């Protein structure tokens, strides 16, 4: 067993877990933050994407112990002060979700994508960058629209501010 | 139409919880004392179980219990059933082999559950499961349905000689043979419809809780139809009596058919909770999902289509072998029969049709309904053969279809279905215009200049949805009725709750069902709550599959709304001392037509509950229920056009344009309908281009059992789609709805394959059209 401490959604947390515990299991089982989902066992589907120290990470690809001391943001921590993040708003406005299961990972990936590319995103780039997030419901059409719209609304300012 | 009424593009009410991570799926549920299950599964596709040794596993940390089929038998837990009886053409009933929730004596596919370990943690259960020693005696294996029918093939079930489940036919064989014999032209094809794995993103899960004090059971489960689960668990599997069993399907992360069925794991978790005295949760991992979720399709067909000298179809003959896997899943028998062969007339006047279907056991995962269920298989045959015939006859594919379109309704086909309404020219014209079909030749020439092979393909599909009139399906062998229920409760403050037997697992019912109420009573959708997915809250209902929630589920809501409206008008008339026939409901008020008298909606509702001043003899309250049984299937139809560019050096196909023009009848929320089409198209394109399910024929191992091996459509495999709708209202239900959930998956595979074969000049191409297969087909044509 290991004791792991980290900051999750701005709150200091620590917990006991087996050495083999994945970050996603720690988030879901120890912290009860069930918005981060597990859709596969081969790190392909992206339903578990969270931000670790500001970067999108598949939380099934790292051990909880590896995140010791890190700043972690999950889907539950994305909205601030009751205001939804522009990417969350865009997913709703453009019907970028149906069953909602892939949605937390999609949104967390999209936020990171916009952070890196700012308002310069185009459809081809969005589609290429979503390669690691699988959705079975939407055919991606409206997800792409939502990401492009959020990127355009956030503009280059989002990229600079995040950096 | 109001801002939130029928036809409004309203953002979804349910989205807030999903975009903030507050959705509640089965695996998110935690109850006190909960323990975890892990299943011991067969690594062999076919083997005798000689013994199960759990002695080492029982001593592992955290283990609470290890159960197998012997204990199931002790508790008289029933066999898993197929709920639709099909008779062979000789009159004999289908040969249903024994399927135990935990295999006893014999395992018949890789993944067949043999035992379950219950332990304190998931990891402990998994560790202990690895320490369970099962002594297997491997048996010969067969994975292909064609091979399984051959003499000398390994035999799966004693009561199914030759692995044949049934040998069924529909239509007029003699008339069809005569049409083919007399034809001016016959197009013949052998067509494979590839096996698919449904892959909803949420893996299946179950949490069974037995309450000893109340002798009561609760099952949280990833189900499209919790009431059907309760019925089957009670009536057939003998796990718990119906009145002592609550089944809850909370947020469910997609289904596509695969979450209709009641699988071994759900049965075992519920039963094991009583047997071990602890709540038992199981969450499927993705490889388990590949190995155990019911697969889809897997047909091999030979077909002949006959034409007269005017290019009119005179006959269509189909011989299909369908692989149903190792056991008969819940509705597996109906998929390659009444959901398939009854659609073989497509959008065309065909005077004679005959189809023969043999279903077969193999050492593979059971096959059942997957998005479209039978109708994609029928459409793929028809639309491949229409395009192929057009090429052989030297006419345009559009023209050949137009020559044969049905234009008078109702139209009785030779294969049971009676189409009620449609305008196939309209959807074809809309699609051709959106695709700039006439400009294709120039685009092809331009692509050639860049070294690319450009092709165009069309598909005109029809499907039968809204499944279905109960008496009709009963006469065809269904073990259940396929009506739907609804209850509308108007609260004392005028807010409204709609309880529906339909289940939403991505379809947006919490929004669209509320739009019906907004349209009717002028209350905002935020004042309307949709309650579903809990057998303790909602009366018996039949759930969501077959694009039925709109055509059947909403129709039940409409019937209940009619009753509420009638009573509300009576109350309002009484309050305003007017005649109830003069009351109209507008903008949230009940008005006396032609006067300035009105009562706000909430005030009428309050009056219903204070009951101080109601019409003589009227019961207090405002709550009405309804059951709706459809009078016919509904018949969505449309035209899809796909344009591709193929790289001749690599065989890589790029979809450069995909156009869909669908007739879904009346549309409640266009945004949601478009989303359903997008998703269906992606699944159909996935089938045609990417998704191959491969078994090793010698060992029966599923070689494509993870996302490393099975190609799910990614964002960069797909284009943005051009979708539009035309509308002929469905005359069979009160809203005129036809249904939209499956169309995309039904219509798109032939459009895409027709486009690729057009591009490469070789019609011999099997789905999925991987770059390797396309490259080989290009070489073969040279």
Describe the structure.
The complex is a heterodimer of chains A (163) and B (782). Chain A has a 5-stranded mixed β-sheet with strand order 2-1-5-3-4, with helices on both faces. The longest helix of chain A is centred in the C-terminal third of the chain and has 22 residues, at 141-162. With 163 residues, chain A is α+β, with helices and mostly antiparallel strands. Chain A is globular and about 45 Å long. Chain A has 2 domains: 2-77, Beta-grasp domain (Ubiquitin-like (UB roll), Roll); 86-162, [2Fe-2S]-binding domain (DNA polymerase, domain 1). In chain A, 37% of the residues lie in helices and 15% in strands. The model of chain A has no long low-confidence stretch (mean pLDDT 94). Chain A has helices at 23-30, 86-93, 103-117, 123-129, 141-162; strands at 2-8, 11-17, 49-52, 55-58, 71-73. In chain A, a hairpin with a 2-residue loop joins strand 1 (2-8) and strand 2 (11-17). Chain A contains 5 helices and 5 strands. By secondary structure, chain B is α+β, with helices and mostly antiparallel strands. Chain B has 3 domains: 31-139 and 201-254 and 259-292, Aldehyde Oxidoreductase, domain 3 (Alpha-Beta Complex), CATH 3.90.1170.50; 299-468 and 632-781, Aldehyde Oxidoreductase, domain 4 (2-Layer Sandwich), CATH 3.30.365; 483-628, Aldehyde Oxidoreductase, domain 4, CATH 3.30.365.10. Chain B is built from 20 helices and 28 strands. The mean pLDDT of chain B is 97. At the A-B interface, helix 2, helix 3, helix 4 and helix 5 of A face helix 1 and helix 18 of B. Chain B: It holds the Pfam family Ald_Xan_dh_C. Chain B: InterPro entries: Ald_Oxase/Xan_DH_a/b (IPR000674), Ald_Oxase/Xan_DH_a/b_sf (IPR036856), Ald_Oxase/xanthine_DH-like (IPR016208), AldOxase/xan_DH_MoCoBD1 (IPR008274), AldOxase/xan_DH_MoCoBD2 (IPR046867), AldOxase/xan_DH_Mopterin-bd_sf (IPR037165). Chain B: This is Carbon monoxide dehydrogenase. Chain B: One of its GO terms (molecular function) is iron ion binding. Chain B: Residues 20-140 form the Aldehyde oxidase/xanthine dehydrogenase a/b hammerhead domain. Chain A: Pfam families: Fer2 (PF00111), Fer2_2 (PF01799).
